[in-house]
Amino acid sequence: MAKILLLNGPNINMLGKREPGIYGDLTLETIEQQCIAQGEAVGIDVTCLQSNAEFVLIEAIQQAPEADVEYIVINPAAFTHTSVAIRDALLSVSIPFVEVHISNVHARETFRHHSYFSDIASGVIVGLGPAGYHYAMQTAIAHIQKDN
Ligand code: DQA
Predict the structure, then answer these.
(1) Catalytic annotation on 23?
(2) Whole-prediction pTM value?
(3) Which terminus has fewer CB within 10 Å in the chain: N or C?
(4) DSSP track, 81-136
């Protein structure tokens, strides 16, 4: 079965409680369940991982080819603006990915305007709230269906 890997970075486990004016009130669990259901509806397995630790995300990316992951959806959260290491991990596996941000990072502090991922992503979804994950999943599914 084709696989999509949904990765979320630091503090995304706090969705629902964290700055609801910016991030909304849906929990990560709800978002993950919605993404899993979206995959299930078309026979695609969705594996979800959130971590506050950079190395955990890097290891999941490194193991993705062996796990038959065909597409990655990632919200690197604060690592977006800092992590050359996660960027290098994504480059090392050559699996296409979409970068998602719940908030419009370009309308926020200047340190959020730069991403270490956007120039190597297949696409970037910014500022559409949790629905951004749904659109990213649609993109991943369309890509997998085109290839298989
Ligand atoms: C975020 C935006 C980042 O700047 C921030 O550090 C996050 C979440 C978003 O989804 O809007 O943790 O990636």
Answers:
(1) yes
(2) 0.97
(3) N
(4) GT-HHHHHHHHHHT--EEEEESS-GGGS-GGGS--SSGGGSSEEEESSTTHHHHHH
